[in-house]
Protein backbone atom coordinates (compact mmCIF):
# COMPACT_ATOMS: atom_id res chain seq x y z
CA UNK A 1 0.00 0.00 0.00
CA UNK A 2 1.36 3.38 -1.05
CA UNK A 3 1.16 5.73 1.90
CA UNK A 4 2.82 8.33 4.11
CA UNK A 5 2.19 8.23 7.85
CA UNK A 6 3.14 11.19 10.04
CA UNK A 7 3.66 11.22 13.77
CA UNK A 8 5.08 13.47 16.46
CA UNK A 9 2.67 16.38 16.63
CA UNK A 10 1.26 17.77 19.85
CA UNK A 11 0.97 20.74 22.16
CA UNK A 12 4.12 22.65 23.07
CA UNK A 13 4.89 25.95 24.75
CA UNK A 14 6.48 28.82 22.82
CA UNK A 15 10.22 28.27 22.57
CA UNK A 16 9.83 24.53 22.77
CA UNK A 17 10.70 21.79 20.30
CA UNK A 18 8.95 18.99 18.47
CA UNK A 19 10.14 16.32 16.07
CA UNK A 20 7.84 15.15 13.30
CA UNK A 21 8.41 11.89 11.46
CA UNK A 22 6.95 10.55 8.24
CA UNK A 23 7.29 6.90 7.29
CA UNK A 24 6.80 6.02 3.64
CA UNK A 25 5.72 2.70 2.18
CA UNK A 26 4.73 1.26 -1.16
CA UNK A 27 7.22 3.13 -3.34
CA UNK A 28 11.00 3.45 -3.80
CA UNK A 29 11.52 6.17 -1.23
CA UNK A 30 15.16 6.90 -2.04
CA UNK A 31 14.28 8.00 -5.58
CA UNK A 32 12.02 10.90 -4.64
CA UNK A 33 12.30 14.35 -3.16
CA UNK A 34 10.21 14.79 -0.04
CA UNK A 35 8.78 17.81 1.71
CA UNK A 36 6.83 19.06 4.69
CA UNK A 37 3.94 21.46 4.36
CA UNK A 38 1.59 23.05 6.85
CA UNK A 39 -1.87 24.53 6.92
CA UNK A 40 -2.54 27.08 9.67
CA UNK A 41 -6.15 27.58 10.81
CA UNK A 42 -8.11 29.46 8.16
CA UNK A 43 -5.16 29.70 5.79
CA UNK A 44 -3.87 27.89 2.73
CA UNK A 45 -1.38 25.05 2.83
CA UNK A 46 2.23 26.22 2.48
CA UNK A 47 5.63 24.64 1.90
CA UNK A 48 7.77 24.43 5.03
CA UNK A 49 10.84 22.47 3.90
CA UNK A 50 12.02 20.15 1.14
CA UNK A 51 14.83 17.67 0.68
CA UNK A 52 16.36 16.01 -2.38
CA UNK A 53 16.34 12.23 -2.87
CA UNK A 54 19.87 11.78 -1.55
CA UNK A 55 19.42 14.30 1.26
CA UNK A 56 22.21 16.44 -0.12
CA UNK A 57 20.17 19.58 -0.59
CA UNK A 58 17.40 21.19 1.43
CA UNK A 59 15.25 24.30 1.20
CA UNK A 60 13.14 26.15 3.75
CA UNK A 61 10.43 28.74 3.96
CA UNK A 62 11.85 32.04 5.18
CA UNK A 63 9.61 31.86 8.25
CA UNK A 64 11.31 28.70 9.55
CA UNK A 65 14.94 29.14 8.43
CA UNK A 66 17.34 28.63 11.30
CA UNK A 67 14.68 26.98 13.47
CA UNK A 68 13.55 23.91 11.52
CA UNK A 69 15.66 21.13 10.02
CA UNK A 70 14.51 18.54 7.50
CA UNK A 71 16.40 15.26 7.16
CA UNK A 72 15.84 11.79 5.79
CA UNK A 73 16.96 8.21 6.36
CA UNK A 74 16.61 6.29 3.11
CA UNK A 75 17.37 3.00 4.87
CA UNK A 76 14.30 3.52 7.07
CA UNK A 77 12.06 5.23 4.48
CA UNK A 78 11.69 8.14 6.87
CA UNK A 79 11.75 11.91 6.56
CA UNK A 80 11.94 14.02 9.71
CA UNK A 81 11.26 17.64 10.60
CA UNK A 82 13.01 18.90 13.71
CA UNK A 83 11.30 22.06 14.91
CA UNK A 84 13.01 24.27 17.49
CA UNK A 85 12.20 27.67 18.98
CA UNK A 86 8.56 27.16 18.14
CA UNK A 87 6.27 30.16 17.93
CA UNK A 88 2.47 30.44 18.19
CA UNK A 89 2.39 31.21 14.46
CA UNK A 90 3.81 27.73 13.79
CA UNK A 91 0.48 26.28 14.90
CA UNK A 92 -0.89 24.26 11.99
CA UNK A 93 -1.61 20.82 10.65
CA UNK A 94 1.66 19.52 9.23
CA UNK A 95 1.68 17.26 6.20
CA UNK A 96 4.35 15.08 4.66
CA UNK A 97 4.41 15.06 0.84
CA UNK A 98 5.99 12.57 -1.52
CA UNK A 99 5.55 11.66 -5.18
CA UNK A 100 2.01 12.92 -5.66
CA UNK A 101 1.05 11.63 -2.25
CA UNK A 102 0.00 13.39 0.99
CA UNK A 103 0.07 12.04 4.50
CA UNK A 104 -2.94 12.35 6.79
CA UNK A 105 -1.45 15.28 8.70
CA UNK A 106 -0.44 15.82 12.31
CA UNK A 107 -1.54 18.73 14.49
CA UNK A 108 1.07 21.03 16.01
CA UNK A 109 -0.16 23.57 18.54
CA UNK A 110 2.17 26.15 20.07
CA UNK A 111 0.56 27.83 23.04
CA UNK A 112 1.23 28.77 26.63
Describe the 3D structure.
The protein is an all-beta fold and 112 residues long. It has no helices and 10 strands. The protein has strands at residues 3-7, 10-12, 18-25, 34-39, 46-51, 58-60, 68-73, 78-83, 92-97, 106-110. The strands form 2 sheets. The chain has a 6-stranded mixed beta sheet with strand order 2-10-9-4-5-6, with no helix packed on it. A hairpin with a 4-residue loop joins β7 (68-73) and β8 (78-83). The protein is globular and about 40 Å long. 29% of the residues are buried.
Shape: globular
| Major sheet characteristics | 6 strands, mixed
Order of SSEs, N→C? EEEEEEEEEE
Q: Helix amount, in percent?
A: under 10%
Question: What's the N-to-C terminus distance?
Answer: 39 Å
Overall average pLDDT: 97
| Helix-and-strand structural type | mainly beta
The number of helical elements comes to 0
Hey, roughly how much beta strand do the residues contain?
Answer: over 45%
Name the poorly predicted regions.
none
Strand order of the largest sheet: 2-10-9-4-5-6
Rg over alpha carbons: 13 Å
The strand count comes to 10
Brief account:
With 112 residues, the chain is mainly beta. It is built from no helices and 10 strands.
Topology:
Elements: E1 3-7, E2 10-12, E3 18-25, E4 34-39, E5 46-51, E6 58-60, E7 68-73, E8 78-83, E9 92-97, E10 106-110
What descriptive keywords fit this protein?
single chain, about 110 residues, mainly beta, six-stranded mixed beta sheet
Amino acid sequence: QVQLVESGGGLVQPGGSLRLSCVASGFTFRRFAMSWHRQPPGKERELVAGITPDGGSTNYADSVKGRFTISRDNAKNTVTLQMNSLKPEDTAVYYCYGPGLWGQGTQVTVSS
